[in-house]
Design goal:
Layout lengths: L7 E2 L3 E4 L2 E4 L8 E3 L5 E20 L5 E3 L4 E6 L10 H4 L5 E4 L7 E6 L10 H13 E5 L7 E8 L4 H7 L5 E4 L4 E6 L1 H4 L16 H4 L3 H15 E3 L3 E6 L2 H15 L4 E5 L5 E3 L2 E3 L4 E7 L8 E3 L2 E23 L4 E4 L2 E4 L21 H19 L6 E5 L4 H6 L8 E3 L12 E6 L26 H6 L3 H11 L16 H6 L1
Antiparallel strand pairs: 1-21, 2-3, 4-5, 5-6, 5-21, 7-8, 7-9, 9-21, 10-11, 11-13, 12-13, 14-15, 15-19, 16-19, 17-18, 20-21, 22-23, 24-26, 25-26
Length: 499
């Protein structure tokens, strides 16, 4: 068994100070939004491969591939009583971190707004920027590298008068087969629009847009909805092929309307023809908020929005998954909702049993310890003839909870197996001889443990040294050739063969 922290699939989008990023692209030093609605630095990034994943979908979260142990910031909602439930009945349980595999259809997942910051822009500029994000594109200069020649925004004929009433800049209109093209010239005037990206699938909101106060957020959002929005009697809806974009729109909707946004994703259609061009379609993401407040399942409480869980399913699929460690809070925002990073058995985590991390209770930390010790116990006491369980040095509380606990049989160091490095690893062994050092080297450093923050710190601290793996294969691999009914006695023929 090799146990790792819980994680998310590579495409999961994390809200950073630079906008939404795939978790696989987040690096040490990035600022991420935590469950307290503040920006905190990433101190470590990790990844692993898993054979089983859990798929989580809640109304305020894009469908997410994770591991079953990953904690979500959630609230439990009381069941209906006599066909009706009041707001007080629904909100009588405080927010808590619940493992993905334990979420039920009676849970709500939580999303939080980033800190507010006023933008030094006019309402006309904010509206036009929103409109550009919906239907605009840039053309680079044909004469000067790094400069933009023109910005073009497509405007439906029915929306042309509204567009003209909102735009105070100099603009030229010309008619095309499908829409009116509004063209703006001059690099200095149009360069600020390039920060939102180019191409429908690549557009996203920078952090300053997500930090807009409610009034400015409403103006920017009005510009966006005039292009990619649909407003009817019941809902206000926006659609895009960019997942980053709809996550940003959801933040603006929550800020501007005080409602909990809801996401849907539609599978791509067959390729279509637009103005004689064959266009390859992509999955279409939709985010919407209701215009009415009557009997809402989702709701907002201060800066937090709570969306009900729609489904949680498990799937056997080999997947590379990623995780982050964040200073102070150990939380971050993934695919629109808040999640937590945590560990349990090793000495480095014992402090959480006396002073829990933010957002956790002492009971939760002790319950998680019980779960980790139970898992270790199940492997250690399994009806298997030969067992090796690897774990860091345990604290006394973990030892007390493991059934038939015995002290580890051996601890090894990488420098005993050809690596000039110090990193203690403990083995609990059943019917296996201790590993014999194969290549003792000098120049032993404590480089891994004391490694400063950096992009490769997670890789160096999590890797298992190949010299130890090779020794396991060479010294224990031959034991499998003998009958499992006759486990090797230390010092006997099989031991001699292993050595």
């Amino acid at each position: 068994m090799v146990a790792h922290p819980p994680c998310f699939a590579a495409g999961t989008l994390v809200l950073t100070k630079d906008g939404h990023k795939p978790i696989s692209e987040v690096i040490v030093g990035d600022l991420v939004l935590t469950h307290k609605g503040r920006w905190r630095r990433v101190t470590e990034v990790m990844h692993k491969t898993t054979d089983r994943v859990t798929i989580v979908k809640s109304s305020n979260c894009l469908e997410t591939i994770t591991t079953s142990e990953h904690p979500y910031y959630a609230r439990y909602r009381e069941p209906y009583r006599n066909g009706f439930r009041t707001l007080a009945e629904r909100d009588n349980s405080p927010p808590d971190f619940v493992e993905a595999g334990k979420l039920t259809l009676r849970h709500f997942t939580g999303s939080v707004l980033p800190p507010v910051r006023q933008a030094e822009l006019s309402d006309d500029d904010l509206w036009l920027m929103g409109r550009y994000v919906a239907d605009g594109h840039m053309r680079e200069s044909r004469w000067t590298p790094g400069k933009y020649e023109e910005m073009v925004i497509s405007v439906g004929r029915a929306k042309l008068e509204t567009f003209k009433s909102k735009v105070s800049r100099k603009v030229t209109f010309h008619d095309s087969e499908t829409a009116i093209k509004a063209t703006f010239y001059g690099h200095d005037a149009i360069a600020p629009f390039a920060q939102f990206g180019r191409g429908a699938a690549n557009k996203a909101f920078p952090e300053w847009v997500l930090a807009l106060p409610a009034e400015q957020a409403a103006v920017f959002l009005d510009g966006y909805l005039s292009g990619d929005g649909y407003i009817c009697e019941k809902n206000i809806t926006a659609t895009s092929v960019s997942a980053k974009l709809v996550l940003g729109v959801a933040v603006l909707m929550q800020r501007a309307f005080g409602k909990c946004p809801a996401f849907r994703t539609a599978a791509p259609r067959d390729n279509v023809q637009i103005e004689g061009r064959c266009v390859q379609t992509q999955p279409l993401h939709t985010v919407e908020v209701p215009r009415s407040c009557e009997r809402l399942r989702n709701y907002v409480d201060g800066d937090y929005a709570w969306g009900h869980v729609r489904y949680v399913t498990e799937k056997l699929e080999r997947t590379v998954v990623y995780n982050l460690s964040v200073e102070e809070d150990e939380t971050y925002t993934a695919n629109g909702v808040v999640v937590h990073n945590c560990t349990a058995l090793c000495n480095s985590g014992v402090r959480w049993l006396h002073e829990p991390p933010p957002g956790k209770t002492l009971k939760q930390m002790w319950d998680r310890l019980d779960e980790g010790a139970s898992l270790f116990s199940d492997f250690w006491n399994a009806p298997i003839d030969r067992i090796c369980v690897e774990n860091p040095v345990m604290h006394k509380h973990a030892k007390e909870r493991i059934r038939n606990y015995q002290e580890f049989a051996q601890s090894v160091q990488p420098w005993q197996f050809g690596h000039p490095e110090t990193k203690r690893t403990c083995f609990w062994l059943k019917n296996l001889p201790p590993l014999v050092p194969t290549d003792i080297v000098e120049g032993r450093e404590n480089r891994v443990h004391r490694m400063p923050p950096g992009p490769d710190r997670w890789k160096e601290r999590s890797r298992f040294f190949s010299g130890i793996s090779a020794a396991m294969a060479a010294q224990w691999g031959e034991l499998g050739r003998f009958s499992p009914d006759a486990p090797p006695a230390l010092g006997g023929p099989q031991m001699e063969l292993a050595l």
